[in-house]
Design goal:
about 450 residues; alpha/beta; 9-stranded mixed sheet; 17 strands; globular; Amidohydro-rel; 8-oxoguanine deaminase activity; EC 3.5.4.32; 8-oxoguanine deaminase
Length: about 450
């Protein structure tokens, strides 16, 4: 790092989210190249060479960048639909629309999803894309291109579905892939795009969609494929009572037991939602170190229920936060999920002891890094880790009278982002994206949403 270009941030509160939850009321962070070089209390060391930028961050809190662990980018162009449905009815209403997406739509939707998250402090995003209509173009490539242009770190969970209505599933018959086609396309996506290096900007996971849209063979062979290729596994699990009933009727067991029977529990696996889990399910996740993507706003939007996050954490289960697709969380922001995770979980059995502000921040940072298998690289502010960090402005009307900055960030209104760094490079400054034109993205997503609506209406 000696010859690296340095950015020095001073006079800020710092929440490192390290193993000891180290915090500084007024401190500094030194970024050298792609990595965090030093941080601590007081002023930065004197005599630093190659300082290209020095920031007086008075009135700000610095945290690790937020890590999103579950999303469906394509849903950005189907927001505001089926607003009074539960999960299964919502899916039945929307699958026929989603099955008409193409590469241009997917690219625009990914731009919109990524822009909204990045503006709100997300430095690592993920997309679980599982709808691949025949002849729709290079959907995976379009999503990866959008992430690269936005400048965020990215995991593509290459999804798939092969259980359609004729097989007892929910997707229409024309909206699914064949077993062999899904496996071959997934393997090709991994081989073409996955980067296993420490500072990787793009990684790929194997991600069959859900028990009610995927055959047992696809789940089992998908797990085998992921482990042969050395990548992670992702799917939906235990989201609703209807899903639990479906699994019992079709497989003779609950979702967790079914996943375990197909090789889908393990430290290389994370699942979205995990709302309806009993003590035995939680113990199985803890024993196998299977991760959870908690999506509080989406779970509320679809009336799915309240996930047992305090019990999962107490058992040692890795838990991160997810936006989920914006057809079930129209805001598309992760920083609001810090607050929603805390508030919704306090409605559960643990009440006011469910989560506190620092636990919520950990879910959105280090917890997400754990779930994505990148806790050694991101998720906390520590020397040697990648320089993914956010400066939150907390000295305005919205937050200035809250003495504790972490409480202000989590309990208060969504805080403005003064600066967001990914790999040491600025992605957001003063609340605006630096690498893409937000207004152009807004126009594009509106146009593609209208085009999709016209095509879907024509059947």
């Amino acid at each position: 790092m000696a010859a690296a270009r340095r950015i020095v941030i001073e006079n800020c509160a710092i929440a490192t989210v390290d193993a000891d939850d180290t915090e500084y009321a007024s401190g500094y962070v030194v970024v050298a190249g792609h990595r965090i070089e030093a941080l601590g209390s007081g002023r930065a060391p004197e005599g630093l060479e190659n300082v290209v930028r020095r920031i007086d961050a008075s009135g700000h809190l610095v945290t690790p960048g937020l890590v999103n662990t579950h999303h469906h980018f394509y849903q950005w162009i189907t927001r505001g639909m089926a607003t009074d449905h539960n999960l299964f009815d919502w899916l039945v209403a929307l699958y026929p629309v989603w099955a008409r997406i193409d590469e241009q739509m997917t690219y625009a939707a990914a731009q919109g999803s990524l822009a909204m998250m990045a503006r709100g402090g997300v430095t690592t995003a993920m997309d679980h894309h599982y709808v691949f209509p025949h002849g729709s173009g290079d959907l995976s490539g379009s999503v990866i291109r959008a992430a690269r242009e936005t400048g965020v770190r990215f995991t593509l969970a290459r999804g798939s579905m092969d259980r359609s209505e004729k097989d007892g599933g929910l997707p229409p018959d024309f909206a699914v892939e064949s077993l062999d086609g899904a496996l071959a396309a997934t393997e090709e996506t991994v081989r073409q795009h996955h980067d296993a290096s420490f500072d990787a900007m793009t990684q790929v996971a194997v991600a069959p969609c859900s028990p009610f849209s995927v055959s047992t063979d696809l789940l089992r062979q998908g797990a085998e494929l992921a482990r042969r290729l050395g990548v992670r596994l992702h799917t939906h699990g235990s989201e609703t009572v209807e899903e639990e009933k479906f699994c019992h009727e079709l497989f003779g067991m609950g979702p967790t037991d079914y996943f375990e029977s197909t090789g889908w529990l393990g430290e290389d696996v994370w699942m979205a939602h995990c709302v309806h889990m009993n003590a035995s399910d939680i113990a199985a996740f803890a024993r196998t170190r299977t991760g959870v993507a908690h999506c509080p706003s989406s779970n509320a939007r679809l009336a799915a229920g309240i996930a047992r996050v305090p019990d999962l954490l107490a058992a040692g289960v890795p838990v991160g936060l997810g936006v989920d697709g914006t057809a079930s969380n129209e805001s598309g922001e992760l920083h609001t999920e810090l607050r929603n995770a805390l508030l919704i979980n306090r409605l559960g059995a643990h009440r006011e002891a469910a989560l506190n502000a620092r636990q919520a921040l950990r879910l959105g940072t280090y917890g997400g890094a754990q779930v994505l298998g990148r806790a050694d690289q991101i998720g906390s502010l520590e020397p040697g880790k990648l320089a993914d960090l956010v400066l939150w402005k907390l000295d305005t009307l919205a937050h200035a009278s809250i003495a504790d900055p972490v409480t202000a960030l989590v309990f208060g209104a969504a805080a403005p982002v003064t600066l967001s760094l990914v790999n040491g490079a600025a992605v957001v400054e003063n609340g605006r994206l630096l690498r893409v034109d937000e207004d152009a993205v807004a126009r594009s997503t509106r146009d593609e949403a209208r085009r999709l609506a016209r095509i879907a209406a024509q059947g």
